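Progress against Task 2.4 (sequence-to-structure conversion) is shown through the following example record, which the project officer requested during the mid-term review.
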Amino acid sequence: MKLKFLVIIPYIIFTVILLYTVKNPNRLELDSYVYERIAENFLENNILKDPQTEVMPTISVGYPLFLGLIYKIFGHNFLSVVFIQAFLGLLIIFLIFKIAQILFDTQIALTAAFLSSINLGLITYTQFLLTEILLVSILLSFFYFFLKYLNSKNIIDLFFASTFIGISLIIKPVAIFYISIPLTIFLFQKSLLQKVFIFFVPIILICSTLVFYNYKTYNSIVLTLAGHENIFRYFLPRVISADKKINLEQAQKIVDSNIATSSNKKYSELYSLLLEYILKKPFLCIKIWIFNVLKTCFGLHYTAFKVLLNNNIKGGSCAFFNMEGNYLNKAVNYIFYGCETKFLAIFALCEILLVFLQYLGLLFLFCAFYLQKKFLNIFLIASYIVYFALITGHDGFGRYRILFEPLLIICAAYLLCFAFNRLRQRKMYERFA
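Structure tokens generated for the chain above:
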């Protein structure tokens, strides 16, 4: 009875925090406007397409379809989306609990669930019209079923894992190359062809549906143009800016003068320009990519949390690197900028501490797995975190960390439980010594 009560505490905490913060009616942030337009068009005309352009968008239709279906069922209002995403947030907490339970035990699983319930990213992005919460719930479902399959060898679990990662590709195709990781694991197991077939058939069927939609709607046989957008609109301008010593806006104009999203062929000049920089200045490209990855890994959700609570500020205006002064002044200004009350600064300090615990826990966990010779667990967790961190090198942003943060939360929970158990054992030893 006590255990059941402890299990529901994280869900209660998450729900209470959501009810406290869900006061701001502004749910639109940058990408949200395109999602909203397509969802409205689907609601009114049953057409899953941006009414403002005939050009194929650089986003996938999965999230606009998700919004459109919610609007058809519950009516056209943002709170209905927040309501459904809140349930997905609870699902994410549950999946984190189950994954930690498979990897470790109930104590660590409960701690991970508690840390998830107070995670600013989960609390914040649940309340925005952004893909993150839906995408994380799908990717984490994949990870759960794949981990379950590795432990049970049940083909049904593998099928579910494949289906979920396939669905994630029509929401945002960030996991397109991660598919190679399960394939790598299959190479060291028996019945390779059977597993590859079961894993790839659902993915191919789901992706084929999206490609067919793009062909019928835009006469383009591609899965998505998101790769073009990420490289040419975000990464390449930063390379040009650093190379030519000009500001980012000027560099963006150079790219915009050549960019055109209506056809892949019109990217040829930009491909040539990017290839030229990669060959002539590879270290500059690598430096910018790694810097953006570090921004993803250590950027705070506190920025978006302030935007959620304060209508008068925008995400870019309160970003750390947009603050004035040296790094110490930047840190102080960043923490207090846009705070209607100094109490909010506590959230920033707590998140900094939790992020530190996450990465310290990651190192500690890898050492423990190495000593226990659990190399598959090391590979599985490391590949997931590293992959979803590396793909953000085009435009580092703390928001992107939420894709792999659930596993970091589990690492932090492992570290906290280990420290607590050792401290308790020491006190018991001193008591009976």
